[in-house]
Design brief:
The chain contains ten helices and four strands; from the N terminus they run ααααββββαααααα. It has helices spanning 9-20, 26-45, 49-54, 57-60, 89-103, 126-141, 147-159, 164-171, 176-179, 187-195, and strands at 61-62, 65-66, 69-72, 83-86. Helix 1 crosses helix 6.
């Protein structure tokens, strides 16, 4: 089985920087913030693009602050089971920025969708998110990056830090066999093995 396509830490940052580029108008700044936030959410939680599109504001922002754990609700999870993913500091900062730039100015309610085009009551489609990530990947390094690459990047990163059962729970895999694709060594793993 070939290893999944992933981004390095540097490539992930270049992709985010590319998504954050705007051309000065307030509307463009808001769109750039939203687009970068989508990538950061996927890179920091490993959620699927369909789960991202189903997120509501109160899944990320509650009682005037970022949540400590993202609960991927059963109604949006692929396996129809809730799962919890702790929120990183980077993601908490991104969520705060989303509230300042997008949600509060639109007077969005907690039940509104977190990622929308114009109206908080209508979520972005998975196809729209795919187009945003694809365009940024092409502009950043001339590679056709998909949202699933961001999920794979998270899974591979977590596998280097913890065990497969925890990665399975974070990614919402029904079977451990699905998680095993992240057990591939990369060049850094091989170098560390030789050096040690």
């Amino acid at each position: 089985m070939s290893p999944p396509k992933t981004l390095t830490a540097d490539q992930s940052q270049v992709l985010i920087d590319n998504l954050m580029q705007n051309h000065g108008t307030k509307k463009q700044q808001i769109k750039a913030t939203r687009n970068a936030a989508m990538a950061i959410v996927m890179l920091e939680t490993g959620i699927r693009v369909g789960e991202l599109c189903g997120l509501r504001i109160d899944d990320l922002w509650y009682a005037g602050q970022p949540v400590q754990n993202l609960v991927v609700r059963s109604d949006i999870a692929k396996n129809k089971k809730d799962r919890q993913i702790p929120i990183s500091r980077k993601l908490a900062e991104t969520i705060t920025l989303m509230d300042e730039m997008l949600w509060s100015p639109k007077n969005a309610t907690s039940a509104s969708y977190a990622f929308f085009a114009t109206q908080p009551s209508a979520p972005l489609s998975t196809r729209s998110v795919e187009r945003v990530i694809l365009k940024a990947g092409k502009a950043a390094f001339n590679i056709e990056v998909t949202p699933h690459w961001l999920r794979h990047t998270f899974g591979s990163r977590m596998m280097r830090k913890t065990n497969s059962r925890i990665v399975q729970a974070l990614l919402g895999h029904s079977s451990l066999q699905s998680t095993q694709i992240y057990m591939h060594p990369d060049m850094n793993d091989l170098r560390e093995a030789i050096d040690s």
